[in-house]
Structure formats: structure tokens, C-alpha cells
Amino acid sequence: MTIYEASERYGIPMKILREYEQWGLCKAVKKVMGAWKYDDSDLENLSMIMTLHDIGFSMEEVETYMRVLLDGENTESQRMRMLDEKRNNALDEIHFHEKQLERLDYLRHKIRREKSQKVIEQKERGEKA
């Protein structure tokens, strides 16, 4: 399957296919008449690359992860460390955004409280709200 067929059939952006070729990770890919030919193992690798991009890995992190993955069987701990680091960073971001939401909610509550206090004071003075 050519790069264009892989992109069309599996919805893989050309940018990612070109990255894959540039990294030289496609050892099983054969160049026929100037065009790369992808096999099932390449499609599995490309699926992993898409997943890594989707979960926030940078291009460099994807390349590193894929090189480690393709190095052999005893790379689980190294890959797990990479995933744990990405997960911890994502959790840190989530906690940061939770704190932002708490502050936003506090400010919104404060505005509502002040507004309702003004309405109460106007009613006590017999003014129109």
C-alpha cells in the first residue's frame, strides 16, 4: 500500500506518514519505483504513533517512544516510565485547571452575592430592583 493509500484508507495524516518514513522506523517498508509500500506491521506502528500524538506526545517524544518500542522485548519499563511521566504531567495540568475553576467560581459567587445583597438593600429601602 502506498503512502497515499495508507493516508486515505486509515485516515492517517500525511505529516505523520512522512515523519514515520523520515525516522527510518519503517524497516519492513520497501521502496518500489520510488514509492514506499506499507505492510501490516507498519500500520500497527502508525496506529501507535497516532495514539501517542492523540495523548499529547510531541513529535520528538513519539520518535523516542517508537525507537524504544521497536528496540526489543525488554523495553517495557522504559516505555512505562515515559507513559507515567506523560500521565503525571497531564494530572498536573488537570489540577492547575481545577484550581483555576475554583477561583473563577469564587469570583462568580462573589458577584452574585453582591448583586443579591444590593437587591435586598433596595427592597428594604422600598426602591425598585
TrEMBL record:
InterPro entries referenced in this protein's UniProt entry, alphabetically: DNA-bd_dom_put_sf, MerR-type_HTH_dom
PROSITE patterns: HTH_MERR_2 (PS50937)
Signal peptide feature range: none
HTH merR-type domain ranges (all copies): 1-68
Spans through the membrane: none
One family name in Pfam for this protein: MerR_1
Gene Ontology molecular functions: DNA binding
GO biological process assignments: regulation of DNA-templated transcription
Protein name per UniProt: MerR family transcriptional regulator
Native organism: Candidatus Anaerostipes excrementavium
